[in-house]
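Now for one record.
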Amino acid sequence: MENDSATSRVIDHLRGLVAAADPGTRLPPVRELTARHRASPVTVAEAVRQLVAQGLIETRPGKGTFVAAPRAEPRAPDLSWQTVALGARRAGEDEMQALLALPPPGAIPLSGGYLDPELQPVAALGAALARAARQPAAWLRGPAEGRADLRAWFAREAGARLRADDMVICPGGQAALSSALRALAAPGDTLLVESPTYLGALAAARAAGLRVVPVPADAEGVLPDQLAAAFARTGARLFYCQPLYANPTGATLAGHRRAEVTEAVRDARAFLIEDDYARDLTIDGEAPPPLAADDRDGHVIYLRSLTKSAAPGLRIAAIGARGPAGARLRAGRLLDDFFVAGPLQQATLEFVTAPAWSRHRRGLRAALRARREALLTALRRHLPELAPPAIPRGGLHLWARLPDSTDDVALAAAAATEGVIVFPGRPWYAAEPPAPHLRLTYAAAPPDLMDDAVRRLSRALRAGTTHA
C-alpha cells in the first residue's frame, strides 16, 4: 500500500509539471524525484512507465524524460472509396439475409428453411462425427469429387440412371446450385424458373449474371405448354425446377405433367436442374421418383441436399450429371472448394446408412404432420381466408394467398412487431407477383405455439386493413 501511495505522489507531481510546461520540456531526473518523494527508483520508474503509456511524457535514452507532444486525434477511416470500386450491389442480397436471419427472442418463427432444433437428429449426427473425427483416414485429402461410397449412396437415391462417377459432393445445396449455374451457363444466358421459385435460386442466377425468365406454375407444378413456349421464345438451354414440394408453394409436379415437362426440355435440347431438396420431407403417402430416374439422354442435372431434412450444420449435398455436363460440374466444384471436409463426409455416410436415418425420417414425418395440422387449424380458426385450398403433401411451408391490395412486405414487418416472423411472397417471384402471398413455415415452431402465432399474425393483418 505504501508503494502504491508513493507511486501516486510521483504521478501527481509529474502531471502538474506536464500541465504547466510546453511539449519537449525536460522533466526532473529520477535521482531528483526519488529524493523529493522519498521513493525508491523502482517506484519512480513505475510512475514514469504509466505516464508514458498514457502519452503524457516520453523518455529519450541517454537524455532524460520530457513532456510529450499532444497526440493527434485518430482519423476515422474513410471507406467511401469502396462504393465506387465495388459498384452496384447484387440483386437479392437483402432478401437472402432476411431469409437466413435468426428470430429475435420471444418471437414465434413461421419462417425459415430449416428444422426446429427439436426435430434435428443431433445426437446421432454428433456421435457419427465424433467417431469419424477419431479416424486418421478421414482427415486425408481424398478424391476431389468426394468419397466414392457417399457418391454411390446419392446415385442410388437418384434412381438407376446415375452412377457414383456421375456425382460430386458439395458443401450444401446452395453451393451446388451456384456451381451448376456457373458451369452450365455464361453471363447473359437465360435461365427459366418456375414462378414463384426458390429465392436462393434467383439470387444465385443473378449473381452469375444470368437473365431470369419466369414460367407460370400452379398447384400441380410448372405448366408444360408455357415451359415449351418459354424455351421457344427465349432460346434458353437451362430450366431450374423443384418438382417435389416446391419452395415456397409446396407444389409437386403432377404425374400427367412429368413426361410433358421432360419432353419440352428434350425438344429444346436443354438441361433441367432438378432440385430435390425435400426428398426426405414427405408427410402424406410416398413421394414420386426423381425426374432423373427416367432421364435417358442426360437432360436432367440432379441436386440432392441433406441439410433441410437433417440439420443446418450438415452442409452435405450432391449434384450429378452424365456426359460433358457432368465433367463441367466436377471441374467447377474443384475450382470452388477443392473438396468437402473428409470427417463430415464420413459422418454423413455413417448416418444415412445406419438405422438412425430411417428412425429419423419416420419421426420427422409424424412431427411435420402434427405441426402442419396445427398451423392449418389455427389458420382456419383465426384467418380462414389465408388457409390454402391445396395442402402440400410434404415439405416445410404453406403458401398463403393474402387479400387483394395487401402489402405483403409491410404485413411481414407489422407481424414482426407483434412477435411472429413470416416471410413475404414478393421476393420469390422473378417478375411482378400476380397477387400478394406469405410463406408460412410449420417446421420452425412447435405445435402448441401455432395458435398464438396466427393470432398475432391476425392482429397485424387486421390492423393493416383498418389503417388502409
